[in-house]
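Kindly inspect the following:
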Amino acid sequence: MKNIINQVGEKLKAKEYKLTPQRQQILEVMLENKDKHLSAEDVYTLVKRKAPDVGLATVYRTLELFLEHDIIHSVDFGDGRKRYEYGDNSDRHHHHHAICLKCGKILEINEDLLEELEKQVFKDYNFVVIDHELKIFGYCGECKR
């Protein structure tokens, strides 16, 4: 984790920003929850446990800064709330999401199910796909009962 924090600090420094203690706390929460899709409010709640002086506005501003500098990316699952994941957009291409309509559980699907479709789109339409996003809506095993 320390290595990633140093890399992010260098990335921000190159753009004339600092990795302040508050930003580092937010980054640490993102790294500790890499397997989760956190809303800004989720991040805020987790950061408050470690650093009670960090405000919600700081969390929002930091998440936007991290988005702008390709440190994290956001996903919208159709419920009007952005969710955030650590990782730049190069990490994003190869996983998709299954979203339970009842409980809101989000499952990551790591297989790249659309590679063949991308090739066909290129072949048929001469269109180069840079990225894609697949969201599958339905019911998880617990909710389908």
Q: What stands out?
A: The first helix runs from residue 2 to 14.
